[in-house]
Design brief:
Length: 220
């Protein structure tokens, strides 16, 4: 049951995250790494849970030992992953910043090579009420000043709100999308870390109960 809950919850995180950051493929890859890991862990836990259940019902020491060893390996991998994440946090942030800088170059392109990316990113801007990635409208370069451009433009009902500022005779969103994306990543990681911590507690209980049952069966 725990494996099914984790699997369903991590799939929900992944789907909702894709919808939020589909305008920035490199960033979405970073953001969804933790969700993908939880999907894998949830699937494995579900299979192991079935194995442990059968071992307990049939009083099979072999199946209980397999359950214990596999669960222990997953717990060790989780702890290792958490330690590596803490150690390499600064490197991950540096890679994220480099990714944003490369994406800015794609936004400024006027060759049409990144037209699809630019269109998707405009949808992201409207949905998240933000503009550009790092430096607002400047990230769009010459594309922002085209006569037919409505890049970053606020809706009529939003122009008088705190979301917008006047720039180049237009009302545009003032918050850079890089801040919005980073906040989404942090929010998702908090959820993922919470689920991972709860999962670790369940795994430890599973290890204790399976070994206890293993010893009781052996003493019969």
């Amino acid at each position: 049951v725990c494996g099914c809950i984790i699997l369903g919850f991590s799939i929900w995180i992944r789907v909702s995250s894709v919808q939020q950051v589909n305008g920035c493929s490199h960033t979405s890859t970073i953001m969804l790494a933790g969700a993908n890991l939880l999907i894998a862990v949830g699937s494995i836990i579900m299979i192991l849970g079935f194995l442990g259940c059968c071992g307990a019902a049939k009083e099979s020491r072999c199946m209980l030992m397999l359950f214990f060893v596999a669960l222990l390996l997953i717990l060790i991998l989780q702890v290792t992953g958490g330690i590596l994440g803490a150690v390499y946090k600064s490197q991950v942030e540096a890679v994220f910043n480099i990714t944003l800088e490369n994406s800015v170059k794609q936004l400024q392109s006027t060759t049409g090579e990144y037209k699809e990316f630019q269109e998707e990113f405009q949808k992201l801007q409207q949905a998240s009420q933000c503009c550009g990635l790092l430096n607002g409208p400047k990230d769009w370069g010459e594309n922002f000043y085209k006569p037919s451009s409505n890049i970053c433009q606020c809706g009529l009902e939003e122009q008088s709100s705190d979301l917008c500022i006047q720039y180049n005779n237009k009302y545009i969103y003032k918050k850079p999308c890089g801040e919005v994306i980073l906040q989404q990543i942090k929010d998702s990681m908090v959820i993922i870390m919470g689920v991972a911590f709860g999962l670790a507690v369940v795994e430890i209980l599973g290890l204790v109960f399976s070994m206890s049952l293993y010893c009781q069966i052996g003493s019969k």
